[in-house]
Amino acid sequence: MSLGGIITAMATPFDGYGRVAEDAAVRLMHRLLDSGSDGLVLAGTTGEGTTLDDDEKCRLWERGVDECGEATVIAGTGSNDTAHSVHLTERATELGVDAVLVVTPYYNKPNRRGLVAHFRAVAEATDRPVILYNIPSRCVIDMPNDLLGELAQIDGIDAVKQARYEDLEPIDGLDLLAGNDDMLARVLDIGGTGGITVASHLVGEEMRRMIDEPESRSALHDSLSDLFGALAVTSNPIPLKAALNLLGFDVGGLRLPMVEASDEETALVRGALERQGLLPQRSPV
Question: Across residues 89-108, what is the average pLDDT?
Answer without folding.
Answer: 97
